[in-house]
Structure formats: C-alpha cells, structure tokens
Amino acid sequence: MSDNRLAVQLLTGPEAPEPNGVGEPGLSVLDAVESRRSIRRFLPDPVSNDTITRILTAAARAPSGTNFQPWNVHVVVGEARDRLSRAVIAAAEAGERSDEYAYAPAPIPEPYLSRRRQVGYALYNLYGIERTDYESRKRAMLRNFEFFGAPMGLFFTMENSLLHGSWLDCGMFMQNVMILARAFGLETCPQQAWCEYGRVVHEQLNIPDTHVVLSGMAIGKSDPSAPENSLISERVEVSQFTQFHE
C-alpha cells in the first residue's frame, strides 16, 4: 500500500484509449451537483487509466478527520471487470448472498420505505416492467453486476478497524469522484448492491479480510437513448430537513 493511502489498484487488460470529447467545460459546480443522477445504461466507450487517475487525484482533496485519508480504490476494466461480473452474477443466481454489512435497518421505517418504493416503481416503469413481473425485476437487478454496461468499475474499501468518522470521510471522497467525473464528460452510478456479494468481490479483487468493501461504482459515458437514464429521483424540500437556529 502506498504511503499516501490512495492505493489505486489498476486491474487492466489492454491499455484503453482516451474517450472522445473534452467533457463539459461550461458546467459549473452548482450545475454539476444539481444535475447529477445515477446512470443505469452506459455506452461502451472506454475510460483511460490516465483519466481515472486524474479524477481520483483530485477527489483525494476530500476532507478527512485528522487527515486519515482512509479510502482505497480498486479499478476494474477489461477481463478483470468481466470476470468479476460473471462471478457475482453466478453467486446471485445461486442465492449465495454474503452481505458485507447491513445497509439499512430491518424492517425499514417510514418515511424511508415509501421513498425507496417510489424510486423503485419509477425505475421499473421506465424499464417497462410491471410491479408483479418478478422475473423481469430480477433481470433488471442483475444488470447492476454488469455495471449497467459501463466499461469501468470502481470499488471503495477501507480498513474495517476504522469507525464511523472514516465512513463519513469515504462518503465525501466518493461524492467528489462522482462530481469530478462530469468534468470529463463521464457519469456514474454508485452501487452498494455489490456489497450483497462481498465475499465474491473480496476473492476476485484480492481484497484482504481486514478491509470492508463500502460500495462499487459504474463509470463511463451515459447512453442518451436509454429511457432509464431520464429518471430524476425526487428530493424533499429544504424546509422538511432543515432547522434554522438564530
């Protein structure tokens, strides 16, 4: 592991060329944040190692308590990406779930359950899937493990001996990655779904048991023709989650 704790592991096949285009130079920080969305169908255009290294270098300016910089990143492309996809899909189809950690309480309380259902039904509607069509819903879920067609996947880990503060730090680092990607004409989809098969991810990427896999992330160019990419999940008004103390 490198001294600066960024520890970017590039798992590559043949070197990928630079993607076409120069990003969105007119995109302000405000626009980049306000128009960010989770993309669920990507174009196959490759993302170069140089591009992702540039994004991760800038993202590492994220704040971290007493400068811990607890994040580690595994980058998968080419055969490494495909091999991981095959292994996790096989585990999912065999019902061999191995949760890395509990993402949400069980049962999920309100209002969170309703919000979850609302975005889920909206996505299935864009896919053209009926609520009772469980087979199609399963196939849609498995597309997570194909990175929604993105040519590159990222996996974020940290040492499992660290506590809640480091989870906050890693979340801010991931947000930086998602916003910075847009400066290069790229989009992302954070994918905690991979953590439901954490054992397989550990094995395929040689992630030590002393690390927890926090999340995966698909990154690439958005497919503008995909109906599912038009989904904009609702956000509650500021007045519903903010109190001003004067």
Automatic annotation (TrEMBL):
For the keyword Cytoplasm, the answer is no
Q: Which Gene3D superfamilies match?
A: NADH Oxidase
Keyword Magnesium attributed: no
Q: Where is the Nitroreductase domain?
A: 34-221
**InterPro entries per the record?**
Nitroreductase, Nitroreductase-like
- Which keywords does the record carry? Flavoprotein, FMN, Oxidoreductase
Q: Which Pfam families match?
A: Nitroreductase
Cofactors required: FMN
What PANTHER family does the database record attribute to this sequence? NAD(P)H NITROREDUCTASE YDGI-RELATED, NITROREDUCTASE
Family statement? Belongs to the nitroreductase family.
Q: What is this protein called?
A: Nitroreductase
Report the source organism. Answer: Plastoroseomonas hellenica
